[in-house]
Design goal:
There is one protein chain. This protein is an alpha+beta fold. It has a single domain (3-101), classed as Alpha-Beta Plaits (2-Layer Sandwich), CATH 3.30.70.100. The protein has helices spanning 13-24, 60-67, 70-75, 80-83, 105-111, and strands at 3-10, 36-42, 50-57, 91-97. It has a four-stranded antiparallel β-sheet with strand order 2-3-1-4. Strand 2 (36-42) and strand 3 form a beta hairpin. The protein starts with a strand and ends with a helix. Bound molecules: protoporphyrin IX containing FE. Pfam families: ABM (PF03992). This is ABM domain-containing protein. It comes from Blastococcus saxobsidens (strain DD2). InterPro entries: ABM_dom, Dimeric_a/b-barrel, Heme-degrading_MO.
Length: 112
């Protein structure tokens, strides 16, 4: 089963625009990484002020390989820390395992 790694980041209001801009210009290397399955940047609208960087991987090993790779370092060069809050607890990585998933029926039929 796939593994979901979510990076939950608190970004101060005055840095949000810059934060989103950085993601618009992101490296785009993760898409070519072995074991990578999905990425989404989620902007908070209600109930929280944390941005979520949602990533899904074929295995824990695939995620770890990417995280310790030069691609990860390059993707975060000069961006990461300065854009998150100065508080050390501003970013947390959560790990989930995918138990079930579904998409709209129409899409599933198209894939067959
Ligand atoms: C303090 C921790 C982190 C911060 C503040 C942070 C912030 C950022 C920012 C601002 C970018 C846009 C590129 C740039 O300007 O650097 C980025 C890229 C990205 N981050 Fe992080 N990040 C952190 C750690 C992580 C972790 C642990 C994950 C794993 C879920 C992750 C997943 C990603 C992905 C998938 C991209 C896009 C890479 C690509 O396009 O190849 N980040 N991150």
């Amino acid at each position: 089963m796939s593994v979901v790694k979510i990076n939950a980041i608190t970004v101060p209001k005055d840095k949000q625009e810059r934060f989103e801009e950085r993601f618009r210009g992101r490296a785009g290397a993760v898409e070519s990484t072995p074991g990578f399955e999905w990425f989404e940047l989620l902007r908070p609208l209600e109930g929280t002020d944390q941005y979520l960087v949602y990533t899904r991987w074929s295995s824990q090993e695939a995620y770890e390989a990417w995280q310790s790779s030069q691609d990860f370092d390059r993707a975060h060069d000069g961006g990461g820390d300065t854009l998150a809050s100065a508080a050390p607890h501003s970013a947390h990585v959560w790990t989930y395992e995918v138990l079930e998933y579904a998409g709209p029926k129409a899409n599933q039929e198209k894939q067959v």
